């Protein structure tokens, strides 16, 4: 395919490390054809990083900002969930599209260039099944210009062996065939599958889902599941099955690099070893895990054993890829009471960004998260004149980004070689913001 665009950068971060004065040749579809030397003197930017894939998102929860914060006794994830149910009960497809567009716009401005949408708000407010809600998410992604991997979620029960409650009805497919009908209807999108959790889907049904989806989609698609997020989830699983959640999952499916275990907060040392041996990926959402009071996954143990770890924005209360990485590292420091927990001899910023981006691309099942031939030309370009980064080059600049920077230090964001965000301003930002504000007004009136 002939090249259709060329981008030139003083520095880029590739799988081979930080490289100087490079040019990216990009085809009409937005994929990198070649990376070659570029002597300048004119460049399109200073330091280009691979755009960060967002490996776990519930975009509708962007509309929950400021809700569910009043103290309610022994406040926990489970009390927060009641506020989430209130929003889920009333949001329409039109509102979903507007909220999704806002969330995805914020992701782009925050350094995320692709997203795995863990989509479980399936049915219409009156309970009617269909594709409308999923299509609304896809419409929001199109409007924002983000690359979307859709993960329709199977959700069947309200707890281990418990029937779903009335406030969960919009999520539920009681029959696997009904879920598979939805999955088949969305095959024009980039797809993976998800079981919500072992408390929402029985392990034998997850095994059945895996096989049925493989028949429909082939072998290589990503599989995602919430697992071991809350201590109560772990204790309930042990009470019912005599196994902890990751052990139980491994009894029923062939864990491998196609599986993405979201949160895994309370994974035991044995389960972390199981994940490492199988190649199953951890997907961590440090801002949301702190926001919900989940706890802190032992990333040091996991990475030390060869584990692969992606990041996500989950509840989308705050959206900033850099801040997710910072929270990840600082959480480990608090857990271990020492510094530089996830750093290498290269420093902190380069290994964290590179590893999370590459793992995120695999979690989405897309050629994303790396600047290399055959990958999407999705880039985050840092601002050379940033207060945080000014005067620094190479690894010290990336260390400064992770420890002290954020979305404000991003000069531009590209998706498929096309500039979507410049100096924090999205090209469709005003229209998306206006639609989101109107949707939010309507939702808040009904909550």
Which structural traits does this protein have?
447 residues; alpha/beta; Urease, subunit C, domain 1; TIM Barrel; 2 domains; eight-stranded parallel β-sheet; 38% helix
Taking strands numbered 1, 2, ... along the chain, how are they ordered across the largest sheet?
A: 3-2-1-4-13-14-15-16
**Judging by the overall fold, what is the CATH architecture of the largest domain?**
Alpha-Beta Barrel
For the secondary structure, the number of strands is 16
Query: Segments where pLDDT lies below 50 for 5+ residues?
Result: none
Question: Strand pairing plus helix content: what structural class?
Answer: alpha/beta
Secondary-structure element order, N to C: EEEEEHHEHEHEHEHHEHEHHEHHEHEEEH
**CATH T-level topology of the largest domain:** TIM Barrel
How many distinct folded domains? 2
What Rg, in angstroms, do the CA atoms define? 21 Å
What is the mean predicted local confidence, pLDDT?
A: 96
What is the share of helical residues?
A: 25-40%
Query: Given this structure, which CATH class of the largest domain is correct?
Result: Alpha Beta
**What's the helix count?**
14
């Amino acid at each position: 395919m002939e090249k259709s665009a060329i981008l030139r950068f003083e520095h880029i971060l590739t799988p081979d490390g930080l490289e100087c004065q490079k040019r990216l040749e990009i085809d009409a579809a937005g994929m990198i054809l070649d990376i070659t030397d570029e002597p300048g003197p004119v460049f399109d930017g200073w330091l280009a990083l691979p755009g960060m894939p967002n490996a776990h998102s519930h975009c509708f929860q962007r509309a929950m900002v400021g809700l569910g914060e009043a103290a309610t006794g022994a406040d926990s994830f489970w009390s927060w969930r009641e506020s989430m149910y209130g929003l889920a009960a009333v949001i329409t497809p039109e509102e979903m599209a507007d909220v999704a567009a806002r969330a995805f716009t914020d992701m782009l401005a925050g350094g995320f260039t692709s997203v795995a949408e863990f989509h479980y708000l399936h049915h219409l407010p009156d309970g009617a099944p269909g594709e409308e809600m999923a299509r609304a998410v896809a419409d929001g992604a199109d409007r924002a210009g983000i690359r979307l991997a859709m993960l329709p979620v199977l959700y069947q029960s309200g707890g281990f062996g418990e029937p779903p409650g009335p406030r969960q009805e919009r999520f539920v497919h009681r029959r696997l065939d009904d879920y598979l009908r939805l999955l088949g209807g969305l095959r024009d999108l980039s797809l993976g599958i998800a079981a919500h959790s072992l408390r929402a889907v029985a392990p034998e049904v997850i095994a059945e889902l895996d096989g049925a989806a493989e028949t429909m989609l082939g072998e290589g698609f990503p599989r995602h599941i919430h697992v071991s997020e809350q201590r109560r989830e772990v204790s309930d699983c042990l009470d019912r099955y005599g196994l902890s959640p990751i052990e139980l999952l491994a009894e029923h499916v062939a864990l491998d690099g196609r599986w993405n275990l979201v949160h895994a907060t309370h994974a035991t040392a044995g389960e972390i070893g199981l994940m490492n041996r199988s190649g199953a990926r951890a997907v961590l959402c440090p801002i949301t895990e702190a926001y919900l009071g989940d706890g802190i996954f032992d990333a040091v143990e996991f990475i030390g054993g060869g584990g692969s770890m992606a990041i996500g924005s989950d509840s989308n209360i705050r959206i900033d890829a850099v801040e997710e990485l910072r929270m990840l590292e600082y959480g480990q420091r608090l857990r271990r009471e020492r510094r530089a927990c996830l750093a290498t001899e290269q420093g902190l910023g380069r290994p964290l960004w590179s590893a999370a981006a590459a793992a995120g691309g695999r979690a989405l099942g897309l050629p994303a998260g790396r600047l290399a031939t055959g990958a999407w030309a999705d880039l985050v370009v840092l601002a050379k004149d940033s207060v945080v980064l000014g005067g620094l080059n190479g690894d010290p600049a990336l260390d400064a980004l992770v420890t002290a920077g954020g979305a404000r230090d991003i000069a531009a964001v590209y998706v498929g070689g096309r500039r979507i965000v410049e100096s924090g301003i999205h090209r469709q930002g005003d229209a998306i913001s206006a639609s989101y504000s109107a949707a939010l007004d309507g939702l808040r009136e009904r909550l």
